[in-house]
């Protein structure tokens, strides 16, 4: 008798627990209405797109964060940011841990097999970053060098492609600041990083670093928002994204984060 009662209580608790951590995340606000929360996966190592400015606090900020909030607001959602290594983002979409990803992610053919992408909202180019005076300006100059890239990024793929023609050593790291630290410590000769992000490091290096853009495939330069395959959110986001591009709000964000 007692045992079955316990079992009954345990199962009620379990059901409560399961519904509390269900998908999509709905939170009740004060008046008891449902406010839907979307979980955004990102890798907050990518200023000015997503990063933490420790001089200002420990919140994740940046262009991608503003863009996500702007679109989500229009659709009636709140955004909750989930930070992880870049290489974990697609698996997180596939396992339903996050509802979308905004992380300066490029919609490659390979990735499209596993996730759906929005339209492109930004275009970047690859840059070789090295210590000032390294003499490394072109892909050919990487011969015999140790070159850093972010794990799981298209720059990692690009480095592998270059290495087929130019004999060099590739080193992968999970986070962009690690690449810069390895250059500064003299362990890497160079790193391949996208220009807008690299610029921030060049500017704050007091002239100790230099960067040179390298030819970048057109289909390997855009940024888009990623969704789980078949997610209805993709079309909803795209619609608002296009509106905001047309009415200049995306441009305003670009000015806010890039023209400083
Ligand atoms: N655009 C590149 C890619 O899609 C690099 C993106 C890295 N993003 C980041 N938040 N660290 O592979």
From TrEMBL:
Task: Please indicate which superkingdom the organism of origin belongs to.
Answer: Bacteria
Q: Any signal peptide, and if so, which residues?
A: 1-20
The record ties this protein, via Gene3D superfamilies, to:
Periplasmic binding protein-like II
Please give the GO cellular component terms listed in this UniProt entry.
Answer: cell envelope; membrane
Q: Which is a Pfam family this sequence falls into?
A: SBP_bac_3
**Which InterPro entries would you find in this protein's record?**
Iontro_rcpt_C (IPR001320), SBP_3_CS (IPR018313), Solute-binding_3/MltF_N (IPR001638)
Keyword Calcium assigned to the entry: answer is: no
Q: What is this protein called?
A: ABC transporter substrate-binding protein
Family, according to the entry, reads as follows: Belongs to the bacterial solute-binding protein 3 family.
Q: Name one GO molecular function term.
A: ligand-gated monoatomic ion channel activity
């Amino acid at each position: 008798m007692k045992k079955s009662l316990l079992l009954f209580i345990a199962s009620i608790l379990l059901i409560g627990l399961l519904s509390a951590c269900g998908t999509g995340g709905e939170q009740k606000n004060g008046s008891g209405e449902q406010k839907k929360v979307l979980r955004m996966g990102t890798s907050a190592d990518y200023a000015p797109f997503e990063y933490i400015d420790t001089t200002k606090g420990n919140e994740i900020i940046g262009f991608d964060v503003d863009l996500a909030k702007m679109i989500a607001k229009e659709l009636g959602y709140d955004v909750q940011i989930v930070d992880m290594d870049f290489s974990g983002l697609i698996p997180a979409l596939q396992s339903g841990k996050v509802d979308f990803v905004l992380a300066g992610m490029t919609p490659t053919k390979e990735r499209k097999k596993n996730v759906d992408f929005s339209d492109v909202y930004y275009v970047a180019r690859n840059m070789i970053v090295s210590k000032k005076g390294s003499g490394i300006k072109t892909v050919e100059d990487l011969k015999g060098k140790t070159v850093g890239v972010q794990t799981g990024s298209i720059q990692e793929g690009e480095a592998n492609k270059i290495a087929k023609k130019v004999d060099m050593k590739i080193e992968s790291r999970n986070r962009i600041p690690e690449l810069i630290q390895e250059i500064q410590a003299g362990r890497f000769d160079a790193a391949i990083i996208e220009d807008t992000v690299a610029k921030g490091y060049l500017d704050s290096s007091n002239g100790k670093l230099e960067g040179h853009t390298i030819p970048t495939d057109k289909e390997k330069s855009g940024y888009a928002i990623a969704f789980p395959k078949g997610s209805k959110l993709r079309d909803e986001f795209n619609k608002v994204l296009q509106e905001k591009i047309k009415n200049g709000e995306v441009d305003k964000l670009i000015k806010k984060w890039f023209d400083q």
